[in-house]
Specification:
single chain; about 375 residues; alpha+beta; Beta-Lactamase; Helix Hairpins; 4 domains; seven-stranded antiparallel beta sheet; 9 helices; 14 strands; elongated
Length: about 375
Amino acid sequence: MSDLKAIQKVITEKKLDTASAKVASECMVELCQQCGVQKKLAKLGSLFENLTDGIIAFDLNLIVIDSNKLGAKISKEFKTFYNDGKNYRLNELSLLKEVLLTKKGSFNNIEIVGFDEHGAKHIFNAGASPIFSETNILIGVCLIISDITEIQKQARQLEDIVSALTHDLKTPLIAAETSLKHLLDGYFGSLTEEQKQILYLLNQSNADALRLVKNLLTVFKYETKSYKLFLESVDVSKLLDKAINSVKPLLDEKLISLKLSHTQFKFVCDLFEIERVIVNLLTNAIKHTPTRGQIEIKALKNENGSVTISVEDTGYGISKEELPNLFERFWQSRKSGLNSNSTGLGLYLSRQIIEAHGGKIWAESEINKGAKITFEISEIV
């Protein structure tokens, strides 16, 4: 009896011999499994078609063999793409050729500019990866491409608003800073100790507000990827000296001793941004170190060419529960207290800067045993 007849007999007579029943059962299971697979493939096909990214598959000759709706639309509407200083058709893009050349390499987050048939400019984010057969033979390349023109436009508009806002906020704060400094320096007559103390507190509050405004703008730039690093060869001694001089009044106020140990070397980084990181780490260490405590800075160049700089204090320390949150935005340790002038942006911004340099930053600490924060960046960024 054929498989089909066995199944038909089950349906019509609802009984059959043992052998036929086994065949029919196996066929029914297989049909159900195939039905389930087809349903899954249909769902995947629906997802594939409705992705917000364009997906285009090319063969080894870079001829389109498949695409989803958005991929087909991009292929049809955009005649040329600007990449590597020249205009190319979509299937001539260097990243596609590079994937086929390397056979295993893939590319992500490549920004290219496309021009439609009317010459209108669009900005695209593109990535590509190889396509292999079931026997692991290279058969083509897949391009994933998304139009980010509006996203970038909105980001620029928001950046302009934030920039204008922070500029407007900075102007009166800088004016107040100058006036308070002149008052404290006695430009407008002598002051009593009580008046000096009040003006000093006002000046500190003003400085905190100014630092917050500057940090907010910088954080925004890093989050929207609108920053630009100015890389140069930096002498580690000069870098550390500048950072230490920036926090010297805070060290003197709490009678904290600073130990500095480093080898003499140069490395490539954005001087202003890495100095900002070190100042942030020192300021944080000073804040959490009691009077007459100690802070140590270590800087060394590793055998692999990377540079490691750490700031270690003898402060209150950080609990294991709090360590994972240390570099999150607006996070503050419970040790800081409600009256702390911390904004919770310093360490978050430090992480952003180090990651922009292709590096990493981490913390080690135990309660009442101080804390050590270290960052590492490559010599060549």
